[in-house]
Amino acid sequence: MNDMLKYELKKYILKLSLLICIIVLILLNFVKVFELYYYTGGGRAVLSGNAVQGTDILYDKYSGKITDEKINGLKTELANAEQMLKEYGIIEEPIEGTYCGYPYGDVNLFKDLISSYEYAFLYSNKSAEITENARANAEFYSDKSRYEYRLSKLYEDCYKGRSLDGYYQSEGHKAVFDYKFSALLSMFIIVLAISPIVSKEYVIGYNKLISSSGKRGSVMLAKLTAAAIYTFAVTLILFASDMVYFQLIYGFDGFSAPIYALQEFEMCPFNITLFGALVITFVLRLVFLLMFTFLVTAVSSFCKNDIISMVVSVAAGFLLVIGSELLPGVLNPTTLIGPTELFTNMNVCNILDFPVFNVVVTLTEVILLAVVFAVVSVRRGMKCC
Asked: In 3-state terms, what secondary structure has residue 273?
C-alpha cells in the first residue's frame, strides 16, 4: 500500500506543473486579498493619502487589556482632539500632531475606541441579561414545549458567565472568516490534479494492467489517499497564505481573546478563542474540499478520457457552488467555506425536539456526501480498472 501510495503521488500529484500552478494561485490570492482591502477595507484611503499609519499607532496604544491608565489617556486625548477640532475646524490638508492627519478624524477614532471600551465593560451585563431571560424561558416552557425548554437551556449554557476586559481590532478577523476566494482556487487546483486520477488509466492503457494484477481495490484506496493528502496540503497552503496576507495588510491581535471580544461576534454561541475560530474555519473548509475531491474522483471513475473528466469536474464544481445557493442554509455545503454566519448568531434547527446547531447538520451532510463519493469512486474504479 505504501509503495502504491508513493507511486500515485509521484504519478499525479508531485509534478512541476502543479507546483508552478500552486505558486501562481498563491500570488493570485494576494491580488484578491489586496483588492478586498483596497475597496472595502480602507486601502483606497490609505493609498490616496487620506489616512496615515498613525491610526495603527493609536490602536496599538489602546488595544489589548483595558486599564485605568488607558482609559484616562483616552479621555485626555479625546479632549485634546476636540480642542484641536474647535481650533482648526474641518480642514482639507493634514496637519502635524494628529493620528490620522485631521482633528475631526481623530475625534471619530477616539469616540470609536470609547464605544469599544464601553462594549467590553457592559458585555458581562448583556451576558447576564441573556442568561436570565433564557432561564426564565426555560422555566416557562418546562411543562409546555420540550424543544423550547431545551433551546432556552442551550442559550443559558452558551452565554452564562461571559465577561471581557480587553479591546482588539476586528478588521482582519472579520475579513478572513468571510473570505472564500482561496477555497475556489483550491477547488480549481484540485480539479487539475485529481480529475485524471482514474480516467488517465484508460488513456495510457494501464487499466488492463491494474485489472490483471488483482489489486484493483488497493490501487483505488491508494488513489483516494493520495487525493486526500493533496487536498490537505493545498488547503493548508492557501489558507496559510490567507493568514499571511491578512496579517500583513490588516494585522491580527488577540489570538487568545474570546471571539466575542470582537463586537461583530458578540452573539457567537461558542466559547472559543479567536485562534480557535481560525482553526475551526480551516477544518470546515478542509472537510468541504475533501468532499469535493471525492466528487472529482467519482467523476474520474466514470470517464474514459481525462479531458472529459476535467470538464465534467469543473461543471460539477460550478453546480456545487452556484446550485447550493438555492438550498436552505442548513443544507448548503458551501456555508462551510466562509463561516461568518456560524460565529455571528445562534443558528439551530429542531431535530426530534432537540436544538442542534446548523453547522453540525451541514457538517454531517458534507461528511456523508464525502463517504458516498468515496465509495462510488472505489466501486466504480474497481469495475473499470
From this structure: strand
Q: What is the pLDDT of residue 289?
A: 97
DSSP letters of 179-248?
A: --HHHHHHHHHHHHHHTHHHHHHHHHTHHHHHHHHT-HHHHHHHHHHHHHHHHHHHHHHHHHHHHHHHHH
Hey, which residues does 350 pair with through a beta bridge?
355
CA distance 217 to 223: 10
pLDDT digits (tens, 9 = 90+) for 323-379: 877 888 788 999 999 888 889 999 999 999 999 999 999 999 999 999 999 999 888
- Residue 270 contacts residue 210 (beta carbons within 8 Å): no
C-alpha cell at position 150: 431545551
Separation CA 70–CA 117 (nearest Å): 10
Give yes or no for residue 55 having a pLDDT over 80. Answer: no
Rg of the Cα atoms in the chain: 26
Q: Which residues contact 3 (CB under 8 A, 6 or more apart)?
A: none
Mean pLDDT of the chain: 87
Any residues with CB less than 8 A from the CB of 16 and at least 6 apart, and which?
Answer: none
SS3 144: coil
The β-bridge partners of 355 are: 350
Rounded Cα–Cα distance for residues 322 and 315 (Å): 10
- Cβ atoms of 75 and 66 within 8 Å: the answer is no
pLDDT band at 50 (very low <50, low <70, confident <90, very high): very low
Q: Which residue, among 114, 63, 312, has the nearest Cα to 199 in the 3D structure?
A: 312
Q: Residue type for 358, please?
A: N
DSSP 51: S
* First CA to last CA distance, the chain: 17
Task: Name, in order, each residue with C-beta under 8 angstroms of 372's C-beta and a sequence gap of 6 or more.
Answer: none
Measure the CA–CA gap between 61 and 64, rounded to whole angstroms.
Answer: 9
pLDDT digits (tens, 9 = 90+) for 313-331: 999 999 988 887 788 878 8
CA 32 from chain centre, in angstroms, equals 15
The residues pairing with 349 across neighbouring beta strands, listed in sequence order, are 356
Give the separation between CA 25 and CA 271, rounded to whole angstroms.
34
